[in-house]
Every structure is written in structure tokens, then in C-alpha cells.
Design goal:
The structure is a single chain. This protein has helices at about 1-10, 15-35, 40-55, 70-80, 90-110, 115-125, 130-135, 140-160, 165-180, 185-195, 200-225, 230-245, 255-270, 270-285, 290-310, 320-340, 350-355, 360-370, 375-385, 405-410, 435-445, 460-465; strands spanning about 395, 425-430, 430-435, 450-455, 470-475, 475-485, 490-495. By secondary structure, it is of the alpha+beta class. It has a five-stranded mixed β-sheet with strand order 1-4-7-6-5, with no helix packed on it. A two-stranded antiparallel sheet has the order 2-3. Helix 5 packs antiparallel against helix 6 (about 115-125) and helix 14 (about 270-285) packs across helix 16 (about 320-340). The longest helix has 26 residues, at about 200-225.
Length: about 500
């Protein structure tokens, strides 16, 4: 019996080690999730959308923003329906898909590179700082990456076996990835290029890939009157975000935008892995090998740089996780090539020296990403939770940074429909300013009775409220301070008699 177990472990030691790495990656991410919070503005905004849909399923369209594809929101709705805990369930969804991505990517690399490259890339992925962080933040990245790399895996299976049915399902998975992040839609023409000379294969792949995106475009047409509303909305929101950064005094010139993605990859992967990976990409393209992953990386990298220069892609390092996941295997591949050229009996595990350089980035990213709730935000949310009445309608201003509003709403635990979300801003000379008439109209029309105000926020230019408990009259309304901390004051609002 003992010999049988030893023989089994000997034969399957690589598979067992692979499973141990995946399990270790899961435990690392779960441990970080247990001692941190999700304080990301985008993720909390989506949680609020999911809560609104759950409260009124028939009004899904009212809470659906076309700037984000629908799949991630629907997964949040399903998850919260199964276990209604807004602080845990959305993060578990990201964690699940983050671990599943590791499995899909491993098998894809095993087919397109080698068992050794796949194995060591899996170790790199387990300690990849950005992947760790966004496996415990409830944004759509891990959902996108699972469907995207499963689509690439099925595509690799097709090139190996020439089975048309596999190609159709590869298209379906790319379509699903597009319903999580729009990069999946951009990848379709890139994959089309690799099917050149195969007219039937192109048609089958396109059929699978376009089913869901076409349905989403039809919904955009029915609801918003424009099948490409998701693009139109993006072209408004992203320039607004660039203008917001410039308002804070940041200088964003052409070179800053061109170098943003290389700089971001160096910071999150580590400089040795970045340069080794880029060398591997160049080597593969010149030698015309590993063309599928190398071509997909080159396509996405050039697309990211171009769209950033056009100010149509926001400066968010988390978008670059896709580039990082594609670059890691080329880094391992190139390192092993160099070792092989030395013509010495050097074991493969020497590549761990390269991967060790990724570890310092983990602490930096974990500290920089929104995984910790500031005390002022906790206190503000706690006051709203305890003091807000069922009939209260609430407006929350930002406090110098937009990212705090949605997390405070989620932390308050009250019905998200009670927060007024209609915009009262407009752009003037490239700057976002408050339309005072619009703001007071919203106060009146929505019967707002609680205002979460900051002297560092947008409303300070209109209200200029003092940190004083005496009632203050502004327009036809009276504002009475009932709570204050270092960044926020909470005011009761009533109309003048």
C-alpha cells in the first residue's frame, strides 16, 4: 500500500504541485480578503446597482449603465440573491473567478508553450500583485479574465484538433468576456486575424462571438435609441475623468500617456519580469512562434496606448492586468531560453529567482489599492445608518475624491434607492462645475432631507456651508448641521417656511 502511494505521488507529482499552487493562491487571496475591506468606488457602485435590481427586478433598465457590460452586474444579482451580504458575496465572486482564471490560463499555456512554462507561470500568477488585489475587489476583472482565457484555451484546442464545435464555443466564451469587459469585444477581430484562410472557421467563430454582444446592442437600441450607446457613454465619461485628474493639478502630456502602461506593468510585475517578458514577445514575433499569445499581447498593448493617447481609456492600472497575464509566460519562456543557451546543466527551478522579483510589488499594491476603509468614511456611514429615517432622501457630495461616495452608501446599509444619483454638474472650460439651479431643483423635486456635504467637494462652490450648528439659509432651503468629522458634515435639509 505504501509503495502504491509513493508510486502515485512520483507519477503525479507535477499535477499535485500544480493543485497545491492553486490552493495556496486561493488561501493567500482569501486571507487578504479576511483582513481587508473593499473600498473601491466602481465595485461599490456596481453593488448598489445590484441591490436596486434585486429590490425592483422589473426596473432593471433604470439601474443599468451602458458604460459597463451587464454580465458582472447579473452575477452580483445572482450572488446576492443566494447570500445577501453586500460586504462578502461580491468579493467571493471575484475570488472564485480569480482562481478559475488560474486554471484556464494554466491549460492554455500548457498547450501553447510547454508544461514547464505553464507551471512556473502559474507560480508567478499566484504572486502577481494586481491579480491578488482584484481577486478580492468586486470589480469585473477576474470574471472577464476567466471567460477570456477559457476562450483562448478553446481556440488553442481548435488549432490542435480542428474541431468546428470547439471553435464555436471559443467564440461564445469571447462573447461572454465582452459582456464582462469590452476588451473581449476588441479581441474578436484580433482572433479573426489568426483564422485567415479559413472562411468557414471565421463564420463559426463569429457566430459564437457575436450572439451576446449583438443582444446587448439590441438592448442599447431599444432602451437608449443607439445600439452603440455603450461607446458613446464611454466617450463622455473617460474624458471627464481625465479632466478631473487635471483639476487636481496633475500634468498629463503625450509622453505621460504613452509611457503609462509600461510604467504600470513595471510597478506591478517587477522590472526583471517586465523586461524579460517584453524580450520574449519580441523574440517570438521575430521567430514567428507562439504567435497567438504574442499577437494578442501586442494587439492589446498597442490598443491600450492608442486609446489612452486619445483619452478614451482611463489611467487605471487594473486594466493592465490582462497585459500582465499575457506577459508573464513570455518572461518565463525567455528566461528558460537564456538558461538553455548557457549549455550548462541548470535546473528549471532557477527561474524562481526571476519570479522572486515580483514579491516586493505585492505589499505596495495591497497598500495602494482601496482595501482599507478610512475612519471618517466608517463614521459617516455609521451616522447615516443610525440616524437616517425611512422617508429620508439623501445627496452625498464627494470630499475631494470621488471614490468615497459609493462605498459610504454601501457601508450605511440603507436602501440605495434613497440616494439621489441624478447629476447636477456640467463642464465649463474643461472643468466640472456645479449647476446651482439644477442642484436646488433636485433638492426640491426629490424632497431631499439629508445632505452629506464636504468643504472640499463640488457643492462647496454653491453652498459654502459653515461647520456651525446654527441653521444656515441657502436659496429656499435651510441646512442644519447634525454631525461633522474631518472631511464630511451631515446636514438636515428643509424648505423655508
Amino acid at each position: 500500500m505504501e509503495n502504491t502511494i509513493k508510486d502515485f505521488l512520483n507519477v503525479h507529482k507535477r499535477e499535485i504541485l500544480t493543485a497545491v499552487i492553486v490552493l495556496s493562491a486561493f488561501l493567500l487571496r482569501a486571507g487578504i480578503a479576511a483582513v481587508t475591506d473593499d473600498f473601491h468606488g466602481i465595485s461599490n457602485g456596481r453593488i448598489l446597482q445590484a441591490e436596486k435590481i434585486l429590490a425592483a427586478p422589473g426596473e432593471y433598465i433604470l439601474w443599468c449603465n451602458p458604460v459597463h457590460p451587464p454580465l458582472h452586474i447579473l452575477l452580483l444579482v445572482l450572488g446576492l440573491k443566494l447570500y445577501n451580504n453586500v460586504l462578502i458575496t461580491p468579493r467571493l465572486i471575484s475570488l472564485l473567478f480569480g482562481v478559475l482564471t488560474m486554471v484556464s490560463l494554466y491549460f492554455f499555456l500548457k498547450k501553447t508553450f510547454s508544461r514547464a512554462v505553464a507551471f512556473f507561470s502559474l507560480i508567478a500568477l499566484a504572486i502577481y500583485s494586481q491579480h491578488i488585489a482584484y481577486s478580492v475587489i468586486a470589480t469585473s476583472e477576474t470574471v472577464f479574465h476567466f471567460f477570456f482565457f477559457t476562450g483562448l484555451l478553446l481556440l488553442a484546442v481548435f488549432f490542435e484538433k480542428e474541431e468546428q464545435g470547439v471553435l464555436f464555443w471559443a467564440g461564445v466564451f469571447f462573447g461572454l468576456s465582452a459582456m464582462a469587459r469590452y476588451e473581449g469585444l476588441a479581441a474578436v477581430p484580433a482572433v479573426w486575424f489568426f483564422l485567415k484562410g479559413r472562411a468557414r472557421a471565421k463564420g463559426i467563430f463569429l457566430l459564437g462571438a457575436c450572439l451576446l454582444p449583438l443582444a446587448w446592442m439590441l438592448l442599447n437600441k431599444i432602451v437608449w435609441g443607439n445600439p452603440l450607446e455603450f461607446i458613446s457613454t464611454n466617450d463622455v465619461t473617460v474624458p471627464a475623468q481625465f479632466n478631473w485628474i487635471r483639476q487636481q493639478g496633475e500634468q498629463i502630456d503625450l509622453w505621460y500617456k504613452i509611457l503609462f502602461w509600461p510604467r504600470s506593468l513595471m510597478e506591478t510585475l517587477g522590472i526583471p519580469v517586465f523586461f524579460s517578458g517584453v524580450s520574449g514577445i519580441v523574440y517570438s514575433l521575430m521567430r514567428r512562434e507562439k504567435l497567438l499569445p504574442a499577437g494578442i499581447f501586442a494587439f492589446f498593448f498597442l490598443l491600450f496606448v492608442f486609446m489612452t493617447c486619445q483619452e478614451r481609456l482611463y489611467l487605471q492600472p487594473r486594466y493592465g492586468i490582462t497585459l500582465g497575464l499575457l506577459l508573464i509566460p513570455f518572461s518565463v519562456f525567455m528566461f528558460l531560453k537564456i538558461i538553455a543557451r548557457l549549455k550548462r546543466d541548470v535546473p528549471d527551478w532557477i527561474v524562481l529567482i526571476l519570479l522572486w522579483s515580483m514579491i516586493p510589488a505585492i505589499g505596495k499594491v495591497i497598500l495602494e489599492e482601496p482595501l482599507y476603509i478610512p475612519q471618517f468614511a466608517k463614521d459617516t456611514a455609521c451616522y447615516i445608518k443610525q440616524k437616517a429615517k425611512k422617508e429620508d432622501n439623501i445627496i452625498i457630495d464627494h470630499c475631494g475624491d470621488e471614490k468615497y461616495r459609493e462605498p459610504i452608501k454601501v457601508l450605511s446599509g440603507i436602501n440605495p434607492r434613497r440616494f439621489v444619483i441624478e447629476d447636477y454638474n456640467f463642464f465649463k472650460d474643461g472643468k466640472c462645475v456645479v449647476d446651482s439651479n439644477r442642484f436646488f431643483y433636485l433638492l426640491e423635486n426629490y424632497n431631499v432631507t439629508m445632505l452629506v456635504y464636504s468643504p472640499y467637494g463640488a457643492l462647496s462652490s454653491v453652498l459654502a456651508l459653515k461647520n456651525d450648528t446654527r441653521p444656515q439659509e441657502k436659496g429656499n432651503h435651510v441646512f442644519s448641521l447634525c454631525y461633522a468629522n474631518e472631511l464630511y458634515g451631515i446636514y438636515r435639509v428643509r424648505k423655508k417656511q
